[in-house]
Amino acid sequence: MDKKQQAIQAAIELFAKQGYEKTSIAQICEHAKVSKGLVFHHFKNKDELLREVFVRMAEIISQVGNAAYSLSKEASPKERLVNLIEHIFMSMTTKEQKLYYQFDYQVKCQPSMRIILQDLLEERYQLMMNSFESILCDIPQANSVVDSHMLIAEIDGIALNYLFSEHTYPLDDIKERFINKYLLLIGL
User: Is 183 helix (H, G, I), strand (E, B) or coil?
Assistant: First the structure.
């Protein structure tokens, strides 16, 4: 990992744990073991670093979607939907992805961060909508737009509870019931 990537990774970790507002460039440099000069060589300011962190995090999360799309186009809409949901839930359980999801919630809860990242947040939300809509439009009983919004909202809620749970969380059981609920809802 090069020094720029070290700084981005350190920023992700610190922003996820401490929040954007409470994390200084000096802390990021110390955590990444890089100089302030190096950070400011790559990023004009902390806001630009935040945008780069979000882009990197979004790339990693989108790898989940790409893995879900590895299923053949000949697969039924039901198989594609279940596969996508299973990949999303599976991604929540890896240590690295968990950190990214925690950071994502930090972003959503801090107005100053949402302003800086508004265009990127909207772009990512649209990508998630497209992922679900492209499957749901092939299911006659589904309302692809409404059901896509519902899926995203419920997955966000489940992820929030899982990521910040202090105790054992029955994520696998919830995933199974969640999938069954949606298959029932859309008549599959």
Answer: helix
* Distances, alpha carbon 8 to alpha carbons 13, 17, 28, 44, 86, in Å: 9, 14, 9, 14, 28
pLDDT (0 to 100) of residue 68: 66
Per-10-residue mean pLDDT for the chain, 188 residues long?
Answer: 89 87 93 93 92 83 70 84 92 81 83 90 90 93 97 94 88 97 94
Cα–Cα distance, 188 to 78 (Å, whole number) = 7
Amino acid at 110: Q
Q: Report in angstroms the alpha-carbon separations of 48 from 44, 51, 54, 102.
A: 6, 5, 10, 20
**Exposed, middle or buried: residue 85 (CB in 10 Å: 0-12, 13-18, 19+)?**
buried
Residue corresponding to tokens 């929540």: 92
**For position 119, what pLDDT does the model report?**
94
In the chain, DSSP finds a helix count (H) and a strand count (E) of: 9, 0
Centroid of chain to Cα 185 = 25
- pTM, full prediction: 0.85
Distance between CA atoms of residues 89 and 108, nearest Å = 19
